[in-house]
Structure formats: structure tokens, C-alpha cells
């Protein structure tokens, strides 16, 4: 069953579209980049990781292949069907991230895919609270941030080795510091688009948002600051 599209979000192309404009069949095709390397290097071997917003399992699959255990959370039943089919015994949980309430904690919680930049401040606060609620006091939260020029170096495109082109077409201000971003994914046999709302965050604004949720930066894991390991404030 598909869920109602959120205001300001839209997706086009073949197959089911999630409430935030993600096309399930597109996300099942997208290549993985260096995310698994960054994650594996930041956590103990064999970690049981809580992945918030797993999508179709683009990152979940290589984490399982590297010996991590994963509990994968997404609100889309169509996305979770893709994840449940992966080898490795992944556990799936259907829930919006900001309303997740599991009666357990994990040594590692991950919030990737720039979800911390959602345009809705209340949703972002809920997501970060969910991270803090579900991480052990001695654990960590891995967060993926947008690059510094994500909203300004436009339009731009790149050809992925997987055989498709990704275009970030525009980032149009819609008020309150939020931009409406339009992306296109062009494959030889299909084209998908996604429109979503994102809020650029300076490093200071990002760290303030963490502090509000009871988290703080432990280290920036990449030179460009796009991957962060945060820890609970004690």
C-alpha cells in the first residue's frame, strides 16, 4: 500500500513512489559509492547497526556482505520488500523515523542519505531524537551531511559507472531557509525525477541541532565533512 505524498515532494517514473518522492525501482538500481567503506571504518567489526531510512537496501547490502548485522527501518512497504529479500538475515521495521519507538538500543545508529537536511525542522528534530533514543550511551550515531556546494553548484550532472546519469537540476528557495530541489536520473531504458525540500545547514547549525537532541560530534569522518560520527552527551 502506497502512502500519501508529502507537500513539496514529488516523484515521477516507473513503479511505486514513496511519500518523499523516492522511486522504489530507481533506488533498487542506484550504485553504492564509498559509504560502506566509511561506515566499516568507523564502527567495530560485526556491529549490530540500526539503519534509519534504508530505502531499497543500496547501502544495507554491502554492510551485510561485510559481516555487520542490520536492523533496517523505512516507512515504505515497497522499499522494505526489497530489503527483506537481501541475503544476510536483515531485520526490517516499518515506521517513519521520527516516530520510531523500539524497545531496544544499538551500539551504532545510522542516518544517511542527507536525511538530517529535511526541510521540516520538526521532522529533523524527531529523527535526531530517534537516533539518541536508540543508541547506547557508549555507542555512536553516523550521519551523512550534504556537501558545501550541494545547493549552489547548479545545475550539475555526473555519469555513474553503473550506466546512468544523475542531474541536480535546481534548488529553488521556498522560504524559511528551505530549498525545493529537483533531481533527475536518466537510465538507457527509463527516466525518474525527484523533487524534495532540503534545508542547508552550516557546520555550526548542524552541531546545534545535534546538541538539542543530546548528541555531539566525536569526529568528522571525511575530509569534506559529509560523514560524521556523533556520540551521546553524558
CATH architecture of the domain at 19-147 and 201-232: 3-Layer(aba) Sandwich
Q: State the helicity in percent bands.
A: 10-25%
Going by CATH, what is the homologous superfamily of the domain at 19-147 and 201-232?
Vaccinia Virus protein VP39
Shape: globular
Average pLDDT level: 95
Give me the secondary-structure category: alpha/beta
Q: Which stretches are low in confidence, meaning pLDDT under 50 for 5 or more residues running?
A: none
Please give a quick description of this structure:
The protein has helices spanning 24-29, 35-42, 60-65, 77-84, 121-134, 203-212, and strands at residues 10-12, 48-52, 69-74, 91-94, 106-111, 135-144, 156-160, 164-175, 178-186, 191-198, 215-220, 227-232. With 234 residues, it is α/β, with parallel strands linked by helices.
